[in-house]
UniProtKB/TrEMBL annotation:
This is SAM-dependent methyltransferase. The keyword Manganese does not apply. It comes from the Bacteria. Keywords: Methyltransferase, Transferase. Transmembrane segments: none annotated. GO terms for molecular function: methyltransferase activity. GO terms for biological process: methylation. InterPro entries: Methyltransf_25 (IPR041698), SAM-dependent_MTases_sf (IPR029063). It holds the Pfam family Methyltransf_25. SUPFAM superfamilies: S-adenosyl-L-methionine-dependent methyltransferases. Residues 38-133 form the Methyltransferase domain.
Length: 246
């Protein structure tokens, strides 16, 4: 089962909608008000892409999951000339156009298996950006991976499904394993639920490691802030944001 295959069906319901507002606010603060051509990597079901298009930006949403992209496309109409969605891999952006802005939020980079893969993403993003373009992304901090995620437990239930999320330390430094279990109602007529299990593996690195890789990819102006603010990270910041200029 591919990652998110089941999760895509109930993704919107289990996600905190206020996070999308925070990502939208953060993005608009750092790209200005004039219309931009934006590529949103790991766009999921397209909520942020839609909001960016609604305020006048030309947006392409890209996601590895066909299921996510199908849900995202349901948000569009024939009148949405500023918005499109595609299935694609952030590890290979050769076929994409050039953009003013590339974003990659929701700690999606933490799903890369190793530093080499992260470096490849940075290289591909740099190539996809116009000169002077901006790359915005976020990742989990080491503090969150080491102190907040271990033994994390979350349960969510409706009449249609139940969702269980348990997290445990991974096998490599600064990594975490999320065990997701879904019980999804099969039919409306009968209370029969089918169980699905997924393993999501994430890892992060030090800020210095990210900065070194970004510089190697050709980014010359790199700023790091934390937790949706424009403040520098501290020892207990949970999410690091990078603002990078080509």
């Amino acid at each position: 089962m591919t990652i998110y295959k089941t999760f895509a069906k109930i993704y919107d319901e289990v996600m905190d909608e206020t996070l999308y507002e925070d990502w939208l606010d953060f993005t608009t603060r750092h790209i200005g008000e004039s219309q931009k051509n934006i590529l949103e990597l790991a766009c999921g079901t397209g909520i942020l892409s839609v909001e960016l298009a609604n305020i006048g930006h030309q947006v392409t949403g890209l996601d590895l999951s066909e299921e996510m992209v199908e849900l995202a496309k349901e948000r569009t109409t024939e009148a949405d000339e500023l918005l499109s969605f595609e299935v694609g891999d952030m590890l290979d952006l050769k076929k994409t156009n050039q953009y003013d802005v590339v974003t990659c939020f929701s700690d999606s980079l933490c799903y890369m298996p190793n530093e080499e893969a992260v470096q490849t993403v940075f290289n591909e993003v740099n190539r996809a950006l116009k000169s002077g373009g901006i790359f915005l992304f976020d990742v989990h901090s080491i503090f969150k991976i080491e102190h907040e995620f271990p033994e994390y437990s979350y349960h969510y239930q409706t009449d249609e499904f139940a969702f269980l999320w348990e997290s445990y330390p991974g096998d490599v430094p600064y990594s975490i394993e999320h065990f997701l279990t879904f019980f999804v109602k099969e039919t409306e007529e009968e209370d029969i639920f089918k169980r699905y299990d997924e393993l999501h593996e994430e890892r992060t690195y030090s800020i210095e490691t990210y900065e070194k890789m970004l510089s190697k990819s050709g980014f010359t102006d790199i700023k790091v802030v934390a937790d949706f603010t424009d403040n520098e990270p501290n020892d207990e910041s949970t999410r690091w944001f990078f603002i990078c200029q080509k």
